[in-house]
From TrEMBL:
It is found in: Chromosome, Centromere, Kinetochore; Nucleus. One of its GO terms (cellular component) is nucleus. It comes from Lingula anatina. This is Polyamine-modulated factor 1 isoform X1. GO terms for biological process: cell division; chromosome segregation. The lineage of its organism: Eukaryota, Metazoa, Spiralia, Lophotrochozoa, Brachiopoda.
Length: 221
């Protein structure tokens, strides 16, 4: 540690003269085997900020005032000594809290759990990454979010049926047009045949039938 000395017992002392046990100092410098993910880092930062806020200068003065009131005789006799004791107490309190947090992270496998949470979030479908549904207190409005899914499925089913009917209608329409075209062609062919027969009848009517019969009678004698 910067600005610290080490005695034969393994303890270190910082610039304020505070003796920090070697175990605490090792915890601060120990690197974990598991790399911290996003949520583990955020949790550790939040805890560090909480500790710093609890041990801020404002609270430091309030605690020292409490020390002075409760140890008034010592404060009146040697206020500097009481202040040094209070400073060491604050350092030891911070070290104890830090050690407790590190122990909690290690014993409860907080880093592993937070990393598993990161993995679950990264692998979760997109629709699960949005905030979960919560009731609004209005039953009519809440039921709509549930009924809309059922109605959406029903709508998709009807849409599929409608598309099938439209395709079938298009096929039938095409078949009717094809049959109608065939009937028109047949009708035109029949009309052409009838017209030809009418012309043949007209030609027959114009022929001199008496002369033809007379010719046949003469040639048959």
């Amino acid at each position: 540690m910067e600005g610290s000395t080490t005695d034969n017992s393994g303890s270190t002392a910082d610039s304020s003269g505070l003796r920090i046990p070697a175990a605490v100092d090792n915890i601060e410098n120990k690197s974990t085997d598991v790399a911290e993910g996003r949520h583990a880092t955020l949790l550790r930062q939040a805890l560090e900020k909480t500790v710093q806020k609890c041990l801020s200068s404002g609270r430091y003065l309030k605690l020292f005032s409490a020390f002075a009131r409760n140890f008034k005789a010592v404060y009146d006799k040697n206020p500097k000594a009481l202040k040094n004791i209070h400073t060491q107490f604050m350092h030891q309190l911070e070290s104890a809290i830090t050690e407790e947090i590190d122990t909690l992270f290690e014993e409860e496998n907080i880093v592993g759990l937070m990393n598993e949470l990161d993995k679950l979030i990264s692998e979760a479908p997109l629709d699960l990454q949005h905030p979960a549904w919560r009731p609004t207190g209005n039953p009519e409005a809440d039921i709509q979010s549930h009924l809309i899914q059922v109605k959406q499925v029903h709508k998709e089913t009807l849409q599929s049926i409608l598309e099938d009917l439209e395709e079938e209608s298009a096929r039938l329409k095409e078949a009717v047009l094809s049959k109608r075209h065939q009937l028109l062609n047949t009708q035109q062919a029949v009309q052409n045949k009838v017209k030809g027969m009418d012309q043949a009848v007209d030609v027959c009517k114009e022929m001199p039938t008496k002369e033809i019969w007379s010719y046949f009678e003469e040639t048959s004698k």
